[in-house]
Design brief:
Blueprint (H helix, E strand, L loop, with lengths): L2 H15 L4 H11 L5 H4 L4 H14 L8 E2 L13 E2 L4 H12 L15 H11 L3
Antiparallel strand pairs: 1-2
């Protein structure tokens, strides 16, 4: 075995020993850090908290204690699908935006391709009279 091969293998072993999954943990932490429990997010607004829980029960959704309610992705007031789970916040936001046809920019980026009807509406808006 040549010195170059030994160096490559040593470098590869160091890479394999490094912690795996750190970027995913860091990304998830950025979306859920500092929100507290779901009850803490609705502190002082018990009526809306109870309405949200009722909406969840009606749709068969079981909110977790540390889920984060994100009104930016809610389609209706107190939309249970706007509860972002702590386990996979980025994936949930991405799936919700794709399902509802929402463009999203920030910690999670989602771009919705424009349909022919959207292009026609843009052209109509941009047309100068």
């Amino acid at each position: 075995m040549t010195d170059q091969q030994r160096q490559f293998r040593a470098r590869r072993r160091r890479e394999l020993r490094s912690p795996l999954g750190v970027p995913a943990v860091f990304g998830s932490e950025r979306l859920t850090r500092g929100h507290g429990t779901l009850a803490d997010q609705f502190a002082g607004d018990e009526e809306n908290f109870n309405k949200l829980l009722a909406n969840c029960r009606a749709r068969g959704i079981r909110p977790g204690t540390h889920d984060v309610y994100n009104p930016a992705i809610a389609c209706t007031a107190l939309d249970p699908e706007a509860l972002v789970p702590q386990a996979d916040p980025e994936g949930h936001i991405r799936r919700k935006c794709l399902k509802d046809g929402l463009d999203c920019r920030g910690l999670v980026d989602v771009t919705i391709p424009k349909t022919d009807a959207m292009h026609a509406a843009d052209e109509k808006l941009n047309a100068t009279p």
